[in-house]
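Example record

Each entry pairs one chain with its bound ligand, adenosine-5'-triphosphate.
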Amino acid sequence: MKGQIQLHEVDFAYPARLDAMIFKGFSINTDAKKSTTLVGHSGSSKSTINGLIKRFYDPLKGIVKLDGKDIKIFHLRVLRKHIALVHQEPILFVAGFKKLVQFGMTRPSRIRLNVGRNESQTHDFISGLKHGYDTWCAGKGVQLSGGQRQCIAIARAILKNAAVLLLDEATSALDSRSEVVVQEALERLMVGQTCVENCDSIAVVDKGKVVEKGTHASLLAKGPSGAYYSLVSLQRGPNPSTPT
Ligand SMILES: Nc1ncnc2c1ncn2[C@@H]1O[C@H](COP(=O)(O)OP(=O)(O)OP(=O)(O)O)[C@@H](O)[C@H]1O
Ligand SMILES: [Mg+2]
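Structure tokens for the complex follow.
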């Protein structure tokens, strides 16, 4: 599995709101072994794209492909084995921490677990608990903050070693210290590509369409009339080319 993702002419509406079309003829291509970042205003359907890739929902029309094959031909379990997702708001089952971190791994090994522990910085807070990795999460066990849940989800994604890694604002719930640490771990995993500026390709989504695609530099070069330029200037002020 190489990990090339393609959405081809996809029409989509959520089952609960079939009258509200999210995509009409939406297409996007991403390269295997490369990083693609989706940017856009809140509600511009970035998370929905991840949901379609992971097959939480199927398109009404069009095809989602993995390595050129319609994802519907894969057994759901097989498809999801190849795709790791750190969701914007991770939900964890009631289980022991060890199980939660290993979840989705085909053959959990001690070595890989240790790598995941160190890489995701979950180890500090889990090992500090009275029962360590045998502590139960939720239920009658430990209740986790949003940031701690994200740490678990990231550790699991790292350990899964999948062909496709989907990060949906993966560090948004972390405090700034933890965010730096987790970002560094993800940078090592993805060879310096988690930051929007450094990723191979940026796609700007707006009203269910990809309106611009390119690198950070090429999109900024479009100047103030560009969609990416205006999103960056919203964050950085009027002169987005100035590094922060
Ligand atoms: N389960 C759902 N049922 C119905 N509509 C939904 C559902 N989830 C999302 N939507 C709608 O789909 C649209 C796209 O939402 P989505 O969460 O994909 O946006 P987003 O770009 O990820 O936003 P954000 O930047 O805030 O995370 C929104 O209009 C939203 O209201
Ligand atoms: Mg989202």
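The chain has a mean pLDDT of 82.
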